[in-house]
Design a protein that fits this description.
Strand content: 5-15%
Order of helices and strands: EHHEHHEHHEEH
Helix content: 40-55%
Radius of gyration: 14 Å
Oligomer: single chain
Shape: globular
CATH superfamily: 5'-nuclease
Number of helices: 7
Number of strands: 5
Distance between the termini: 15 Å
CATH class: Alpha Beta
Largest sheet: 5 strands, parallel
CATH topology: Rossmann fold
Strand order of the largest sheet: 3-2-1-4-5
Length: 138
């Protein structure tokens, strides 16, 4: 079973039902529901998603959505090692550095994101949800 790290923007695509991106993110998470892939997100993703969604939805709806979402994924935390790696590396976006090293630490086979440009130095594949689905279906 493939293990994939899912970046925050993909989670937001799903939970916010973003028009241009919802279908691909929904397909990705359906594979997880069907136990075809394992999806990992970070604790940072939960914090950031909560922060963004509370601007769009009532707090009880945000919490309810995140509780349901949590059943679809494995949640990975980060520690001093991840933080030190992200601080030393020259990622343009510090958060992306944290996400990247969490993915590496958890032996993820790819990172699924729409923000591919910030992962230029990655040693693992960086794909958007549509690209992964197209590869997976082959």
């Amino acid at each position: 079973m493939k293990t994939l790290f899912v970046d925050t923007n993909i989670v937001l695509d799903l939970l916010s039902q973003r028009i241009d991106f919802f279908e691909a993110s929904q397909d990705l998470f359906t594979y997880a529901i069907d136990n075809k892939i394992k999806l990992i997100v970070s604790t940072l993703t939960f914090a950031n998603t909560h922060y963004i969604l509370k601007e769009q939805l009532k707090l009880n709806k945000v919490r309810s959505s995140l509780r349901k979402f949590k059943t679809l994924v494995e949640v990975a935390s980060f520690d001093d090692k991840i933080l030190d790696l992200a601080l030393e590396e020259e990622f343009k976006d510090f958060e992306d550095g944290i996400q990247y090293y969490i993915a590496l630490e958890n032996s993820c086979e790819a990172i699924i994101t729409r923000n591919k440009k910030d992962f230029k130095k990655s040693i693992i594949p960086i794909l958007n949800a549509t690209e992964f689905i197209n590869l997976y279906q082959k």
